[in-house]
Design brief:
Chain lengths: 357, 357, 357, 357
């Protein structure tokens, strides 16, 4: 950490900074410059709270040299973390799983058909919301517990593991009973109470980047989960806010190699929310794989025209078939491959999911 | 709602749009243009979910003409809503209350002293966090229930009503037992579960704008609270994300007259988070009043150098005195006034707060 | 300047950084930390180009501690620069001039009437475009040289000095023959060729902030003008790009005290472009004064419905009267005043403008 | 175009809107709704200036249904425009040219060596700045005319066509004498005077997206060039401003398929400026190809540590070799190919560039 003093800071003000750094248990190293003095704080293990220093008179700026996160950092753990949500469905290795399905679970027919279509096309996991965060209180909010039951049904029919969103502490426990991976949505990325809850539950978590979250913010939110002892965290780029209304969000694919350099956690991409436009999902899904994504999260609906939410960005089943085919070609061009669908559930027995917990 | 068709949309595609609009219970009005056909949806009461229409083939865009919110709209209720958090402390009228206090409650001495300083300077309510949303899991997270007790103590000593933040459903109930107004922070602006909870509790709510929330998003979040039957909602501008690192956030003062035109709810401003810089709080607090703010929310600490959080943006007590004085001059210049501090608690009896429930 | 090394930077990589800093003629001060080593560059006079250091192996980041600008800095010149565009019309002092007029010069009747209305209401200078930068090549582009003639006519009729925009080098010389202050628009803020030209011409310049310019970018662009020997520069906040379509731009009023702290140059505000909405010009003009603006730039049209450009954000004359009245009240509340209109031109003689060159 | 009236607009106000639309030569179609009336403007050929309508009393909003651009639109010309900058170096077809070279031309040795390395690695054109727009007036501004001479030398040595930037009208004519394609940089994207000049010169133009330009803004700027009769325009995504300081810019790859759908012009990508980080150029260059880019523009320097500008984002020559190899693999995966380097210049004769004019 570097404390930059004002041009006209007095000797006493500089001395006070040095004193406070030492009170905090670190070493201070003053560095007089041509224009101004800076004071280095040496020994920061990533946990120093700079706001006390910012409050001192004569301080112009506090510059963070160390990263504020720790357990999520690749400096803390150099090798990739592999997150396994079901046997053979692993994020962070050479294989790239594709998670697909409708925005919302609407009925048994819909979700089972969707799961079959995902599976046949080559998807490795099923997504679908039982609890939906909607910007309007008057929009469809999901089927709730009934939706979770239908997801379990779809899994038993197809063997696909389930990724579904939790919106609050109570819901997180309900979701954890069914899902193979608990999704935390963009709007809840800084809901620290919920992050701690899913950290304690211990199941794999898919954490989506908030609409105005920097890469550092995203990693700090993941740090909350790891700090509770759960390192099974998949990060997800899903588009951020920007000034151009041409797309619903601005899909920041550079976030993929950025996160992969800074952290050992896998990073996947959601081109459906990332663009908000059905006809952009295919090229941007390809681009995500080419940028090095460890997985894709895609909205597909058996009949988008009938979807209760997000119909405009959901792929038709045949478009999803094409996406998987093209993703496979790109993955091979960079020496990776697409994770095949897991073995179907055997008749008369529950689907084997020994890795689930 | 206007459904804009592609340049080369077929007659069948247009017919399908008309049909779906009628299925949804509204009237369709096709409007052939020089370049493309649009189809108007007539009869929208603000609750139409456009995503089904977006999903149709041949649709280029769905343009929302009606606002998606309803009960928060000034079209729904033309006169200002007055939100009373304590006798004489009313938001939305000609008088402008100033809420001030430290970022976090740290000790009995600190919060009582802060409350006395706020009161003496002319503040009308006390703020201070017992539960703090911090981006790092390793930063000070607030004193929790003990902090709430200390806030109650500060109120009994000074008569100032309390505004403090709740982070989750459980916390909201604890906060509601003590606070005169429950604050929902920027990171939780779209935590719909929490919004519903405070809607049901029924106490006044101060809802802060999220870091990447549009004005529409903010009003939609307020709609969640009103939809539960609680119209005692104060909105708050506190800075949004922007590309310039010169300030912590970009303080969007135009949001004040915008919200006041669109909604009947009071809109206050937080120049401390809005700028993140102590020496900008004074000019931007003045500017907020000049723009028409219905209140100010300001961080002040008896000793900012010793603050456990946000020290760098907290005013010194004497700076707060000056802020109130200058705010008063601006308020008078535009025909308003600053709400005086409420009567102090009488000795030997609990402070009178009949308006609290 | 601080060169932050990677966690795993080798001793040789650090040595190379030290060596290059010394080659560049500065002192290097390595600072080993708990997580990584940083190397301070001491002696930076604000002209070090960090890109050579960024290019070295093992370098994670180059952090600029010194500001990249020089002559515009308040550290270079502590007292305010006063910019005089006509006798008695001075920017940067206690008096605050209001510049107003139509977006475009349209006819002799229109511009002379507008000038009379500005003058009567209490404006101190006339604005109006003879050259208009329009996003469409098919929109009205201004009257060109004829427009400049009409501005001169309006000045001779009212005595108001003229502020008008130049779009390119050739136009800058034409504008300079007539205008009292040459405006550089937001789109040309980084047109360095044009900045150098107006720097050499030597007349007062009003430089508008670009739509995505940081405060540092704005000051660097002003530095181009000062580097040519012209310190008569007025800076202008006019709104920046943001994600919320509620307003045309996001009016960043905090930029006013920020710039005034960093630089000795005056800083004015344009609430017309800053908001893009006529009914927001009044509150935001007041807010700009309260934030400390050294002037206002406002669009007013004798008949906005007939305006050839920007009619939707132009004030009606009677709204402008109210703006000046309210600005005056705010200015007085903070111990400043609004500059009165200059003395009218005497009949039979050209208007006296001895301060013009 | 749709004119949305206020909730409480009077019958007279609506009638005035209808009247003005008819005065402007179009048809008005009023559409009363549940909440408010809208008035459709029928017959808009893309040239209607909505600001006159915005200025009318009772108007809440003017919504543009038609696109404001015309000649650049794919609705105007359905098939791709092919832009040929040298024999065999064509943008907009199945083959994808890679343009590479240093940020600035520094010396004969540097630029000739760079050109040879580009050629050997498989690049199809040479980039390098003779005129550099630098944010500081004290930074290296390019060699000017001498730099153009050196670019011509590099072309005669290698046969690679030249892409180089012009900063102003005078420079554009000088650049046009040497370059095969004139680059307009991001800062000049809305320098309409310069756009008109290069439109009239008639040589191929590479137009970079401005830092805060929407897709519509970019297309409108291209429209300026086409409106002068020059349709040889290549568009370029190079990163936009965002709130996350992790990267210099935010590389918006979705802009590629967006532009390609809206326009017939080719769209290339610059991952060097798009990310500002050398180690992100490789993955994001691959991603750009996968997203459908019609070309790449990449900074490569024979010795980045010695570069006078942008060293930190320039590839080492061996990294560029790898980029071309991986780009080729991705291109093949999507059924395209990388344009091979053009035939080298024959000894004793000037390089054949029949396609240049």
């Amino acid at each position: 950490m570097l404390v930059v003093m004002n041009h006209d800071a007095t000797r006493e003000q500089i001395a006070r900074v040095v004193e406070l750094i030492e009170e905090m248990g670190y070493q201070a190293r003053p560095m007089p410059g041509a224009q101004r003095t800076s004071v280095g704080l040496v020994g920061n293990d990533g946990r120093v709270d700079g706001s006390r220093l910012e409050a001192l008179d004569g301080v112009a700026d506090v510059i963070h040299v160390s990263k504020p996160y720790k357990q999520v950092s690749r400096e803390w753990r150099p090798e990739n973390t592999l997150v396994t949500i079901a046997p053979g469905v692993v994020f962070g290795g050479a294989q790239i799983p594709i998670i697909a399905g409708p925005c919302s679970v609407e009925s048994a027919e819909q979700i089972v058909l969707a799961a079959q279509q995902v599976r046949e096309a080559g998807g490795a996991a099923l997504r679908g919301g039982a609890y939906k965060p909607r910007s309007s209180p008057y929009s469809f909010q999901g089927l709730g517990p009934k939706g979770l039951e239908l997801l379990a049904l779809a899994r038993s029919e197809t063997g696909l593991p389930i990724v579904t969103e939790a919106l609050d502490d109570e819901g997180a426990h309900l979701v954890a009973e069914v899902a193979d991976c608990i999704q935390i949505g963009a709007r809840n990325m800084q809901n620290y109470s919920l992050l701690r809850t899913v950290g304690r539950i211990g199941k794999p978590v898919l954490l989506k980047r908030g609409m105005s979250a920097t890469i550092t913010d995203l990693l700090m939110s993941a740090e909350y989960i790891l700090a509770e002892g759960n390192s099974q965290v998949i990060l997800c780029e899903r588009g951020i806010r920007s000034f151009d209304p041409s797309t619903r969000n601005l899909f920041d694919l550079t976030a993929i190699p950025l996160v992969q350099k800074l952290s050992h956690l896998p990073m996947v991409a959601d081109p459906s929310h990332g663009t908000g436009l059905r006809d952009k999902v295919l090229p941007m899904g390809r681009a995500a794989i080419a940028a090095g994504a460890d997985g894709l999260l895609v909205e597909m609906h058996p009949n988008p025209e009938r979807a209760l939410s997000d119909g405009g960005q959901s792929l038709h089943p045949e478009q999803f078939v094409r996406l998987v085919r093209e993703a496979r070609a790109i993955a091979e061009a960079i020496g990776r491959s697409i994770t095949p669908a897991p073995s179907p559930a055997r008749e008369g027995s529950p689907p084997a999911r020994p890795g689930r917990q």
